[in-house]
Amino acid sequence: MTITNPRDLPKIDEFIGDECFAEAIETFGYMPTIKTARAVIDEARSTLLNQGECNATCHPSTKETPLTCELLTQRVLERLARDAKPGIRPVINATGVILHTNLGRAPFSKKVADAVYEVASTYSSLEYDFEQKSRGHRNTHVEKLLCELLGVEAAIVVNNNAAGVMLVLSTLARDREVIVSRGELVEIGGSFRIPEIMEESRAVLRGVGTTNRTHLHDYERVLTDETAALLRVHTSNFRLIGFTKSVSTKELANLAHEHDLPLIYDLGSGCLSPQLAALLTDEPTVASAIEDGVDVICFSGDKLLGGPQAGIIVGKERYISAMREHPLLRAFRCDKMTLVALEYTLRLYFDDEMARRHVPILSMALVEPEELKRRTELFADKLRMHDIQATVEPSSMVMGGGTAPELYLESWACVIDPALHKGAPSPSVIDSNLRASSRPVICRLIQDRLFFDLRTVRCDEEDLLIDNLLHAMKTESRS
What is the pTM of this model? Predict the structure, then answer.
């Protein structure tokens, strides 16, 4: 029955009492269902009132579609399903960017994800000492692994690298000077600025040299009794080229030690894999920083390490022990899921081949181009079986996450040109449809062609990617 008068709208209790809402109430809950139904009926009431005012003056073709109980039910169910979609959900990353910051950076392996689920779904030994039958320390497990893996005296883990840098500076240099090259006073993603972190840490910034050239004597010239530390910052997502000069890490370490000062190194990405280091030749590694004599090193867990978001601090016991007593450590501490993910990721690094096979970012970065080409050609063949004309073309990939900004590695992409498909939506509509899929697909749209780089697509995601693409090319718009 068509509803033309606001008084004919169903009462809420009677409306959702219909059996067609039983499954919705079971799935979404009674209160969300009644709230959504009330909102839909209120909107319908406003629509009917507006139609009543418009009837005398509006052309008939401008009037709204007549309302029915069936239409109202459909709107409620559609809105419930739409609102129930989680904000953070899995996506298929077909961009080829391995450490895509907007897509969560490093994905976990199934081995690590299973470990997180197993610990998170029950009680755990997070802060329990089995031998003493008493309270333990949550960082003990990963600290032991880091010390054994890297050959350092001590380690500590916080919830991100910015917090790590802040904790180090606040502990070792509060109200005292820290010397850093002006060429390293960087800003990286999310407005993270080294000078501002230093200010919040109550460390006094003492910049030396110029943006493009800094010499050892620039550091020597400003050393005083107020100097607490020397700081080196990896510039991460930009490079200075041309007329440049910088001081080596080893020279800085020697200078710091001559004056009984620590050298602190904000390493940023934190590469542990020798195989990945050979590929990213300009990226400093944790091992090289330790070998050069750095006293305290900070790096991220979710970049080149391939683990969870974390700030990892390693170095000399005399400096790390002071951080364990700092009040900020509790504010910056990691939760159990982060620590489990980090522990299981670190365990993989005790064997290079094990790490390569089970740390996804290593598998993606180190895949042979010819192997990737063969896989892409097989994928294109599958698309052609569905009458989608696909070509395989040379491409290039970047690591992402502010890592190795100048490095482009050889890759291959499956390319689709919608103009070659009669009746297909426009490239931008297909791209939008892919992003609106139940499992969103993120690809690259370049000059009206869609590029899919399988380097960052799991093998078990390929069939779903094809299904989503088929729907996206047949549907005018899903958004």
Answer: 0.87
